[in-house]
TrEMBL record, chain A:
Residues 95-139 form the Aspartate carbamoyltransferase regulatory subunit C-terminal domain. One of its GO terms (molecular function) is metal ion binding. One of its GO terms (cellular component) is aspartate carbamoyltransferase complex. It comes from Alkaliphilus metalliredigens (strain QYMF). Keywords: Metal-binding, Pyrimidine biosynthesis, Zinc. It comes from the Bacteria. The keyword Metal-binding applies. This is Aspartate transcarbamylase regulatory subunit. GO terms for biological process: 'de novo' pyrimidine nucleobase biosynthetic process; pyrimidine nucleotide biosynthetic process. InterPro entries: Asp_carbamoyltransf_reg_N, Asp_carbamoylTrfase_reg, Asp_carbamoyltrfase_reg_C, Asp_carbatrfase_reg_C_sf, Asp_carbatrfase_reg_N_sf. The lineage of its organism: Bacteria, Bacillati, Bacillota, Clostridia, Peptostreptococcales. Residues 2-91 form the Aspartate carbamoyltransferase regulatory subunit N-terminal domain.
Amino acid sequence: MLEVTSIHKGIVIDHITSGKGLKIFQKLNLDKISSPVVLLMNVSSKTLGKKDVIKIQDEVDLDLTMLGLIDQNITINLISQGEIAEKRQVKLPVKVKGLFECKNPRCITSVDDYAQSEFTLVPNGKIQYRCHYCEELTEYKL
Amino acid sequence: MSLKGRHLIDPNQLSLAELDNIITLGLEIYRNPNHYREICKGKILGTLFYEPSTRTRLSFESAMLRMGGTVLGFSDANTSSAKKGESIADTIRVLDDYADLLVMRHPREGAPLLASQYATVPIVNGGDGGHQHPTQTLTDLITIHHNKGKIENLKVAFCGDLLFGRTVHSLLKTLSRFPNMEFVFISPSELKIPKHLKDEVIKSNNVEIVETTFLEKHMSEIDILYMTRIQKERFFNEEEYVKLKDSYILDLQKLRNAKEDLLIMHPLPRVNEIHPEVDTDTRAKYFEQAKLGVYVRMALMALQLGVIESC
Ligand SMILES: [Zn+2]
């Protein structure tokens, strides 16, 4: 199996459903950061069979809120001094700012740069968000 | 809580007590307009109408002028300083200093909310696309209160375009917060009330609702009949429109089983959904409704400006 050495300090985004790693890589703009980053695809996993993993070395300021929108199986490991200092499960974010657009073509957010899209999760079992401005529901799809 | 300095973007920002306060004051001003002729002396209302709506604008202007204040503004975004491409935030940052209260009408949904984030003076939503029109809702509520003496225990029928009808959505959401309301939705199947709204209304207060395509079906039981326009272009086929258009024209014949104290309302303008023969019926209150709209706007603005604390 392909081996990548463990990191001393940084973030490991683990248990990504196989095939979604690249999307997350792009959504987090990881091609634009200066720290070392690896994207592992189709790594074997005990629970998932196959998974993708992203390892980011050093402390990088990332908005990880959106991970919950993409894949709720994901675990985030914060690594410090070669050990897992914190393990986080991702959740569907309740409030979302700017990550996607309101689907309502009549919404002010579609024409005014000052109106940054802002949503609140609607607890109805679907991944639906209510727009702060026009109140229309937008279903989140990657 | 005081309304002084507060924005009004969505009628649900007002508690039932605050709604009651505005309506009671509106009726007080309606009965004694001379007492309030000078309360807004020195105050300026700015009317920012990014799309024309003469009735709404004139209602606000009349309300301010009747309280001794003055008005300035524009009624067409293309010929005004708020030219295309300028952000609402920038327009507000400038105009905010020109007036003590601003009313904004905008074709984009959420525009007045955006404006309120940059304004230091109160913003009133004068209608944003198909979204909200809170002062129309206040107008409807004051009309109900004036004629029924209460806003509770009423069976209200909405007839017409219930799918796109902004005034219906806004009023319905607000009415469903009052105790023991029942609703009848009368519309063609293509223009039924949106499901999410229906669910929300039912959940909010366990209210009873009925849906039908026939105007007369529940006529004898209802306390209020709220008529709206049906536009031909909303229909997918001409045949369906022709079949239904006549059944939603309210005439005296259709009112023969109605209650003696039925309240017939319409946000106006009407096209042909209420036959002129109904106008002289004592139950027809749509012109009174437009008139009361001025007084409820006077009450709202007086409270927002803080020239009256409460009544
Ligand atoms: Zn929106």
